Amino acid sequence: MPIKIPDSLPAAQILESENIFVMTENRAITQDIRPLKLLILNLMPTKIVTETQLLRKLSNTPLQIEVEFMQMRSHESKNTDKSHLDTFYRTFAELSGKRYDGMIITGAPVELLEFEDVDYWAELAAVLDWSERGAHSTLHICWGAQAALYHHYGVPKRTLGRKLSGVFPNAVRKATSPLFRGFDDLFMAPHSRRTESPEAEIEKRPELEILASSARAGVFAAKSADNKRFFIMGHPEYDADTLAREYFRDIAAGLSPSVPENYFEDDDPAKPPRVSWRSHAQLLYTNWLNYYVYQSTPYDLSKIGGAADVGNDYVI
Description:
The protein is α/β, with parallel strands linked by helices and 316 residues long. The chain has helices at residues 10-17, 25-28, 47-59, 82-88, 92-95, 121-134, 143-153, 199-203, 242-252, 278-294, and strands at residues 3-4, 22-23, 36-41, 65-70, 89-90, 100-105, 135-141, 158-172, 186-196, 208-214, 218-224, 229-232.
């Protein structure tokens, strides 16, 4: 089954050109089934790129999924056209009265700031609290995972000596976890960050469990004991050229970045990248949707969480 997104969303044409089944809104309304309702809080500045990356991973499942996008009202996006945001994005105030089978919270390039110094932190904190009632299961990515671990469990982040960039081997630490069903014992995943949530700090919290980790990149995946929250520290959704674009962007900015590890052929930036993570990345998103959303979400969305919220109970 396909993913259902607005007909005019830029990602639709890209995915169709890749032979990924995207269902138009007009066709979807003729089907007598309830699709999974998924909310994506996109905190990345290049929103269209991130939309496409995530939708590519969400679309390759037997489930029909209806996606909505959220933006932060307390932050002005400078890298995405306002008309795109006005057309395809809604604010927390507009969406907080709804309920969703699943939610994804992306990363953001604000990791060197203290959490409370991020201009939309108060609003994001309200969203994180609401997600417990508004979504059956929430998947947090990179900085979004660090932010949620800090907000919900007090796990601090630690600044790394140099930016961690590359594709690293990760070991599955809980082979029985449905999230890693079908995975090899070792799998590759991209990482691109300057901070981390230390493994020792996560292990101090009995309500958290580490599912996969890397000797070089640290924790890759953790979850809450009740399966409501998942924390992915890498970027399995990345395209083949994403790390290359980041590397050459930093070169142009005079930042002298390290060459992404295990990425370019022969570790030579003049040669093309090698994709070694695509199949496991797809399986990760498919497993989350199947085992932690579809298999356990109530058919009646009103049974998720408690009473409706108004979405304005935070201080900007």
